[in-house]
UniProtKB/TrEMBL annotation:
The lineage of its organism: Bacteria, Bacillati, Bacillota, Bacilli, Lactobacillales. It holds the Pfam family Mbeg1-like. It comes from the Bacteria. This is DUF2974 domain-containing protein. InterPro entries: AB_hydrolase_fold, Mbeg1-like.
Amino acid sequence: MATILTYLQQNKDTSFTDLPLNELDILIINEIGYLDFSKFLTDRFDLKGEIKLYHLWEDYQKRQKNQAVSYDFLLTKERIELFRLMLSGKRFVDLCLEFYVNDISAEFEKQFSAMVFKLPQMDYKQLVFRGTDDSMIGWKEDFKLTYMREIPAHRSAIVYLTEILNELSGPVIISGHSKGGNLAVYASTYVKAELQKKIAAVYMFDAPGLQASVLQSQGYQAIREKVHVLRPQEAIVGVMLDIDAEVKIIASSSFGIGQHKTTNWQADLARDCLLPAKEGPTDLSVNLEKTFKKWTGELSSQELKRLFDTLFDTIITSGISSLNDLSLDTASGRKLANAVASFRSIDSSKKVLLLKSARLFFLAFVGHTRLAAWEKPRLPLPDFLQHTEKD
């Protein structure tokens, strides 16, 4: 099955004159925005200025020679290969990075990162908002979207976008995957009207939507026709909240939370675009969307806050600080199961809804992570998580 990696392997030496920039190129540039470029730096480079990525990669390879790459949630094998392919051909050899920001604050429960990529030969500029990292703090901030009109990263995104659009001449593409896509649309909504004119398009790649009040705002309506929403068939993150722009459903080679990775999305090499799925969203995605709507429709902001504070704070205090902590051992499974079981202590008339929502959320995420490799008897699920929906 063809992916953006396949596309790049075939077209890394094809000029933009022979093959015009398309949504696969935009997704590729967005995807490398997940790389922590501070790890590539030496004293030769300064992230405050413009950096030609070919020189950065060349320097990194010399230092990395004969050393094994230490992969993590952001520095994945697929992203390194994507980066290598980009800079080993003529198409992206002149790609530059500028205005790189990476601001993570546990105190304020904020994870914010953004940057600008440039292709000087065609005066192309793409501002990328990075999505969530592997930290539970980052994921907790994501779920604040369901009960907070503005999270800390939103304010940072507006300030950043305002500064960059004032600095750059238009047009500029704005993009983001996961929470990054939400930040892209939110910030584009709240910059001044004269700056919105510089925005050529906004791409949301499997990203949470917006609160109803934001969708109804004059700022959003001014950019609505510029918003492109792309998500996989089994979207989990992308079905949070609402978006009233047209949604393009993409085929994926994976399932569950694995479909959130854009390197698993299928590409149509004949048309140089992402491959539309033959069918609509899966039952899992539809059920999760209904669950999110129940949360936001039937629970108050305080109840939602209590729900996610209980879930994430209990997970974090149990010793699980990142997704990478979900290792293949019974002890980790018991920690997570006990954390979810803490919902029993919630004293609320909405307890049944909370428990059913927790069950669906738990099975959706845990069922498609490394925990899925366990045999069922080895994973000590709380009793309520094993009940059917009719219970």
